[in-house]
Give the backbone structure.
Amino acid sequence: MSEHTAPRTHEGLEELVAMVARLRAPGGCPWDAEQTHESLVRYLVEECWELVEAIESGDRAEMIEELGDVLYQVLFHADLAAHTDGEPFDIDDVARHMTAKMVSRHPHVFGDREAQTAADVVAFWEDLKADEKPHRTSVLDGVPAGMPALALADKVIGKAEKAGVAPDASAMAAGLVAQVDDEEALGAELLAVVAAARARGLDAERALRGAIRGFQADVRAVEDRGRAGAGRTD
């Protein structure tokens, strides 16, 4: 932003915050007034996936709408908390917490560390997250189990690599991926696997989740052995 450019106001955002408050206030919408954090979870998940679809389609008008839907969910949760006993926070608290978090996670921008590449930044984040969450004893801690199975598998494998653990890649799987050159072809192969599983009465999602749980147990076992070995003095 040029020093001669006036800072942009956010009247639209302020109007939306006020509108959410009115809907949930006495005399507002009965449905909105009855909602809880828990009852809203399904809508948050749905809205996030609709946003993903809009991004993948490249439709900018749809992105504006779906980003608005996700933003609405954030504001709804914040307003609900602001008016619930035992939950003394509002949207400003959420925003300030996020600002502080991002400042601490970007010492190369707001501090004196230097980062030349995106990989340097990722390394900063890993170090900072470890300092912020010392209670986490495994690289798998914090991975949300509710992710879709494929996304969860990719996330877990990426985390496991940091512990020096990799899942067994069968010759069949390695050969399959070696035959595809792009994500479109890979998607077709994955779809074929799901179709074949369905034809045999097998649940591909459940099967993959089961395999992930087994792999997670292997990762944690390796970590436990490493900690036990580090504690030995003989």
Observations:
- The two ends are 61 Å apart (CA to CA).
- The mean pLDDT is 86.
